[in-house]
Amino acid sequence: MAQTVLESLDEVRAAVGRNLGTSDWLEITPDRLDRFAAATGDRERGYLALALTNLFLPQIVEVRGASLGINYGTASVRLRAPLLVGSGVRASAELVACDDIPGGVQTTIRITVEVDGTDQPACVVDSLSRWLA
Q1: Which of 77, 83, 117, 118 has the most CB atoms lying inside 10 A of its own CB?
Q2: Helix (H, G, I), strand (E, B), or coil: what is residue 86?
């Protein structure tokens, strides 16, 4: 269940600058790394943290006041550290921008993937979503 529920597009607009919450912890298992590397060819594990943002974001925020939500891409991505077997990771999110578009809004949500026991995040991404009325 999402930690932050936004009931309308007006609530989305009003939430700019707000910390939306934190996801559950996830253990990085050898199987998860092996399957990701086999599917993507990414043996350095940097893109796994980016890919996990799609798992974490729905745990953090839910927009109920939209008929459709679309993953629109990213504005920026910083891969700062690979994910290692046995590490625990989670994400936090902040709504940094909301712009009106025809039929709805486009949000920029800054997602920071942190690794348990370290100060450096594995990944920081400005994720773009479109929410249509």
Answers
A1: 83
A2: coil
